[in-house]
Every structure is written in C-alpha cells, then in structure tokens.
Specification:
Blueprint: H1 2-15, H2 20-27, H3 32-47, E1 55-60, H4 62-66, H5 70-80, E2 83-90, H6 94-100, H7 110-117, E3 122-128, H8 132-140, H9 153-157, E4 166-168, H10 172-182, H11 196-199
Antiparallel strand pairs: 1-3, 1-4, 2-3
The structure holds inosine-5'-diphosphate (IDP) and magnesium ion (MG).
Inosine-5'-diphosphate binds next to loops.
C-alpha cells in the first residue's frame, strides 16, 4: 500500500510541479511520513554539495588582461579566503562563447560582446569556498560599472558596461554549467589548503 502511495505521490508531484497551489493541496491527502521522507530526500540532495565546497567560474575578460589587472583580481579572491582550484589563460573561440552566453544571443549588443570577448586572451578560474557564488557576485559588482559600488572589481576598475573587466557565474546551476564548459575535470584540483581551519568552522 505504501509503495503504491509513494508511486502515485511521485507521479502527481511530477505532473503538478509547475503549479505550487495544486501541489500543496494535493500533498495534504498523503500521510505525513511520506511527505517527511520527501522533504528529507530534498535536504539530502542539497547537502550533498556543502556550502563551503561551492565552486564558481571567474574570468578576467580581455580588457582586464590587457590592463594588467589579473594579479589584483586574483588577489581579491585569495585575500577573501577562497581556494583556487583551476586556472588557465586562453584565446576563446566564438563557439565556446556562444555556449557561455547562450541566453544573450538575441540581445542587440551580442555581436559587440562576441567581438569584445574574442579581442584578446582571457584568464579563467574556478574558485571554491563557502557560498562563493553569491559572494563573488558581490565582489565583482553590478553588470553596469556605472552602477557598481566602489570596492567591487567593476566599481574600482571600470566605468562602462561594454568593458566590465570580469565575469562571475550568477547562480549555482550557472556555475556548474560554466565550469563544465570551460574546464575538463582533470584541470580542476582537489587540494587541502593549510588555512582551511582558520577561515571557517565546518559544521
Ligand atoms: P553579468 O556579466 O553581470 O552576469 P549579464 O547580463 O549576464 O551580466 O551580461 C553578460 C555580459 O554581457 C556583461 O558582463 C557585459 O559584458 C555584456 N553586456 C550586458 N549588457 C550589456 C549592454 O547593455 N551593452 C553591452 N554589453 C552588455
Ligand atoms: Mg551573467
């Protein structure tokens, strides 16, 4: 009986996943144990990637490389305490860029963006650490440097949206997608940093 309930529950959840109200009302007809199991499973899935093991993709764009800003940008992430797990310099292909910026292909500025991003080498990195995706977005600052706060990379080193120096993934899912796009698994290192215990108490 429980197996059957579990099966029906899963099917309904899949079917109605787009409508939270319907899903909520449907959930009330199922035993609490089944729902708790579902919530616990969700929790397990989330905690399989602990916050302090988060990874994000940061790239110094061609203007940042040309203006000798690579060292200063790396320094900011190092001094914040994040761990560098991948780093390389490359001349990006239009193919890779079109995948990287797939959501922007229809934008009017897309041709200029491609031209800008292929105008010279970029330095691309993967940084790891506690909530690194959100924190690095804050460190990088607003997309438009004219609105970026002083103290952020864009706010300190740029003034126009067409040359904003640096890229940072904007979400966990985006980071995972971009890291896989730019790096092979063997290019990413898992290593113990000796200051790990000083920067964060793992729960
Ligand atoms: P993000 O880099 O802060 O995540 P996105 O909206 O994802 O911002 O845009 C990607 C990149 O496209 C920007 O960093 C910038 O280089 C470029 N871009 C975005 N909007 C404009 C625009 O209106 N004009 C020119 N370039 C833009
Ligand atoms: Mg973006």
């Amino acid at each position: 009986m429980v197996m059957l309930q579990r099966f029906v529950f899963k099917r309904l959840r899949l079917f109605y996943s787009g409508n939270q109200e319907i899903t909520k009302s449907l959930l009330t007809i199922f035993p609490a144990a089944l729902l708790d199991g579902h919530r616990a499973a969700g929790h397990r899935a989330k905690s399989s990637l602990p916050d302090f093991k988060e990874r994000t993709l940061i790239a110094v764009k061609p203007d940042g490389v040309q203006r000798h800003l690579v060292g200063q940008i790396i320094q900011r992430f190092e001094q914040r305490g994040f761990k560098l797990v991948g780093l390389k310099m490359l001349q990006v292909s239009e193919d890779l860029l079109s995948q990287h910026y797939c959501e922007l292909r229809s934008k009017p500025f897309y041709p200029q963006l491609l031209h800008y991003m292929t105008s010279g080498p970029v330095v691309v990195m993967v940084w790891e650490g506690f909530k690194v995706v959100n924190t690095s977005r804050m460190m990088v600052g607003h997309t438009n440097p004219a609105e970026a706060k002083a103290g952020t990379v864009r706010g300190d080193f740029s003034f126009h949206i067409s040359r904003n120096v640096v890229h940072a993934s904007d979400s966990l899912e985006g980071a995972q997608r971009e890291i896989q796009l730019w790096f092979e698994n063997k290019e990413l290192l898992t290593w113990d940093c000796c200051d790990q215990k000083l920067t964060c108490e793992e729960e």
